[in-house]
Amino acid sequence: MKLIVRNSLKVLLAACLIYAVVIFVFSNVQLIDRRMSSYFIPNMQRNGGQEMQMMRDLTSNQVKYDAIVLGSSHAYRGYDPRIFEQSGMNLFNAGTSSQNAKGSLVLYNEYLRNRTDVFILDIYDPVFELEGTESNMRLIQNVPTNEAAVALVQQEFKMYTVNALAVRMASLNPIDEAPNNDYVKNGFCEKKGILYAVEPLNDSVFDANEEMFMAFEKMIKQMQADGKRIVLCSHPLPASPGLHNYHDKFLTRFTPLIQRLGVPYIDLTYYSEGFGVNEFADLSHLNQQGVVLYNRILSENQTFHEVVIP
Amino acid sequence: MLFNSIEFFLFFPIVTALYFLLPHQWRWLMLLIASCVFYMFFVPAYIFILLATILVDYVAAIRIERSSKPRARRWLIGSIISTILILAIFKYYNFFIGNFNGIAQLIGWNYSVNTLSILLPIGLSFHTFQSLSYVVEVYRGNQKAEKHFGIYSLYVMFYPQLVAGPIERPQNVLHQFREKHSMNYLDVSKGMQRIVWGMFKKVVIADNLAQFVSPVYEHAESVSWMYLVIAVVFFSFQIYCDFSGYSDIAIGTARVMGFRLMENFKLPYRSTGVGMFWSKWHISLSTWFRDYVYIPLGGNRNGAARTSLNLFIVFAISGLWHGANWTFVLWGMAHGLWLVLENRMNVRWEGKLKVWFGTVLTFAGVSFLWIFFRSSSFDQAISIIKGIVRFQSQPGFLPSVFVPLNGAVIMGKILLLLVFVFIDRRVTDVVFGTRVISANRKMWLFAVLLASLALFGQWGKVDFIYFQF
Fold first, then answer.
1. Which of A71, A86, A116, A301 could bond to A95 as cystine, CB 3.0-4.6 Å?
2. What does CATH list as the number for A2-308?
3. Measured between CA atoms, how close is B67 to chain A, in angstroms?
């Protein structure tokens, strides 16, 4: 028995040592255009991109914003601070790729709580289906403080996120390896291009990830406890066959939750007036022309007005 | 419960510790309860199907032993029919009904039978075959009927090999449940080595390759021929690492508790012919078909033509065993035909270069046939083959599912595969005990494998491919 324990410990210690050495090498050695970690470690992304650019913008000053947007790529590509600026509103866009409520909550607690009283939460159905690991890994790699990175790992404790944290800690000189050329300012990225064709949604069955709904509820309750004003928004989507089936299923699960929480939801998913192929960049994103139209509609929306400018 | 799940990482040490802590007379009961818990993690209600099979074959075996030959034969046939019936209902009913409806439509007969909306109980093909082997061996007089219902249930339900084999024989396993195993260093270390190596093959190699294979098969018409070729090669290693990885974990888990299960894989891609391949691939199934189908059909005792026919029949049935789809049947028949031709041509690969050539040729053939095995339909298989032979270029843009699979990630996977090809034989030899290395080197080897699990593993609860059978 003693021999078994002793030898097992030896192997485990040696494994930890190898792990540490490999992580250090992979985090610092460049292979062609990126660090080795993003070639070999599953789900590991290149450092930087919109997440890093947004976090730099956010932490470079202590400005208090009129509203902050949270959500997925729909958020950081769908709410243009320049348009809201025209109506005298200082908006920051803290959305990141596939950002889910777990990631949003950490950003809120670590960076956003004291930066505004109003939160615009962009709602995109598939985020409530995904596990969210990749999205949180991107945040772990790019948030400016280790405390936030550790909090993200606690939210999503998996081997992948532990690896992302290890890579982050071992990186001697983290640089932006994949700058997003569409980045404008205040977290916003301008999406170019025009929708090629409207194809049917492959998977028209909404498959809820209950964990995401629970995380969402927790986030809303915390924001409400802090006295924040919240509005939920969804931008229009191309009228593809299967969309209604999918979004209606989502609403069946989502509506009772937000009614219970008492949060207003401006759902423009089916809104089609003025939105054709020229207003979309792809099946799930508006292009800049669509963003201009959507942001104007939102600015004129009474519910939006009531929450954002009480 | 999946071997590559967090639940198993808790389940395994608890069950093992309990096994050694409990007095010998209670161990079978604890293992049986643990096996039930393990099985019920999938679809709990299906344990009743398993219990039905166990009950029928338990009673039948006792009756066979106590009866005269003709009566015993009737019990044997009854047992086989009832076991096969369960398999037929749950695995093949919809397949046969689908074919029946298709034929009815073809001949203009306006009649169709409804299919059933049922899930295939996990591992059904494995434990029904294990159960059948017991009844046949009792009938043949090679095994005494087990009177202890709990011990017999454990023979069918022993959790390490319950859902995907190895398909055991009663002579090898049954007596082990009565033997008293005490914890010893050799069993624990050998068992743990097998588990780590199996996990590495499954989580690091198979599941990493699967990430590329699945979308390529799904979007075969939208990717270039290079992607298709890579996917075909990747799948050959995916299925090998997935299934042999499962077998290693099963054998290792049992070994830690002192049980010896039969080997299921012996470096099958190092074969210079399809015959050799099948003597190294899923050995427990190949030998099952040899003992219970091929030999009863006459084996090689009735001339070359009949031998060929027997081989062909066995492989066709083996194809159907794998799945209720004509793609599996075709896959099996193609292997059967290949084996018949190989036997007839009596090809010998002698000399280093020829052996190498024969190995590559066999791997290419086996990989090609895996296309039918992996495809969900003939159309999918044909579109993959067409895409390769026509050097299909990538039309327009890649489906969005390929976005995370950029060139760098694919290169990473290719490199990972090359590393595996290099180490497979060496590590397998160490794990099997056919290559002796110093304790220090062994410690570092398994430390590297463990670190690789943490660094490169796909811990997304990906099912084992053979679970569907």
1. A71
2. 3.40.50.1110
3. 49
